[in-house]
Amino acid sequence: MAGCDAAATAAAVRQMAETIEQHHTELTHLDREIGDGDHGANLVRGFRAVVEKLDADEPGTPGAVLKLVATTLISTVGGASGPLFGTAFLRAATKVGDAETLDAATVSDALSAAAEGVVARGKAAVGDKTMIDAFEPAVQAAQSAAEEGSVADVLEAAAAAAEQAASETAPLEARKGRASYLGERSVGHVDPGAQSTAYLLRSLATSASGAG
Amino acid sequence: MAGCDAAATAAAVRQMAETIEQHHTELTHLDREIGDGDHGANLVRGFRAVVEKLDADEPGTPGAVLKLVATTLISTVGGASGPLFGTAFLRAATKVGDAETLDAATVSDALSAAAEGVVARGKAAVGDKTMIDAFEPAVQAAQSAAEEGSVADVLEAAAAAAEQAASETAPLEARKGRASYLGERSVGHVDPGAQSTAYLLRSLATSASGAG
Amino acid sequence: MSVGLVVVSHSAQVAEGVVELASQMAPSVRLVAAGGDGSGGVGTSFDLISAALDEADTGDGVAILYDLGSALLTTEMALEMADPDVAERRVIVEAPVVEGAIAAAVAAEGGGGLSAVVAAAREAGGDA
Amino acid sequence: MSVGLVVVSHSAQVAEGVVELASQMAPSVRLVAAGGDGSGGVGTSFDLISAALDEADTGDGVAILYDLGSALLTTEMALEMADPDVAERRVIVEAPVVEGAIAAAVAAEGGGGLSAVVAAAREAGGDA
Ligand SMILES: Nc1ncnc2c1ncn2[C@@H]1O[C@H](COP(=O)(O)OP(=O)(O)O)[C@@H](O)[C@H]1O
Ligand SMILES: Nc1ncnc2c1ncn2[C@@H]1O[C@H](COP(=O)(O)OP(=O)(O)O)[C@@H](O)[C@H]1O
Ligand SMILES: [Mg+2]
Ligand SMILES: [Mg+2]
Ligand SMILES: [Mg+2]
Ligand SMILES: [Mg+2]
Question: Where is the DhaL domain (chains A, B) (predicted)?
Answer without folding.
Answer: 7-206
